[in-house]
Amino acid sequence: MILGDELASIYTDEIFAHLFPKRERPVEAPWRLAVITVLQTIEHLRDRQAADAVRARIDWKYALSLPLDDEGFDFSICAYLSSTAHRCPRRVSGA
User: For 13, how many CA atoms within 13 A lie in the half-sphere containing its CB?
Assistant: First the structure.
């Protein structure tokens, strides 16, 4: 089983819809953002370093089910997610 298959059923777009402007969709799937946040925390990376890891590291691409040529995302999405995490439902944020 692929990690994304399992997490996609828990971290759905609908649960996170309130975190993004009404006309925009998340840059990444919510389950990927959750995995990125976990990897970032485990490795003690800053937002820019986590975005660089998504672009450059094969182990991160594998964990995120991304093709090797995936260009990643702008690091500001990590900061945005951090700044809005307090608005996540309890069952998602663990608060």
Answer: 8
Distance from C-alpha of 13 to C-alpha of 9, rounded to nearest angstrom = 10
Averages of pLDDT over runs of 10 residues in the chain (95 residues) are: 69 66 62 87 92 93 91 78 53 45
Mapping DSSP to helix (H, G, I), strand (E, B) and coil, where does residue 14 land? Answer: helix
Give the distance between the most distant pair of CA atoms in the chain.
36
Provide the residue type at 2 as one letter. Answer: I
CA distance 48 to 76: 8
Structure tokens at 10: 């828990």
Of 16, 17, 19, 59, give the one whose Cα is nearest residue 36. Answer: 59
| Residue where the block lists tokens 């820019």 | 48
The predicted structure's pLDDT at residue 81:
65
Confirm whether pTM is higher than 0.70: no
Instruction: Classify residue 90 by its DSSP letter.
Output: H
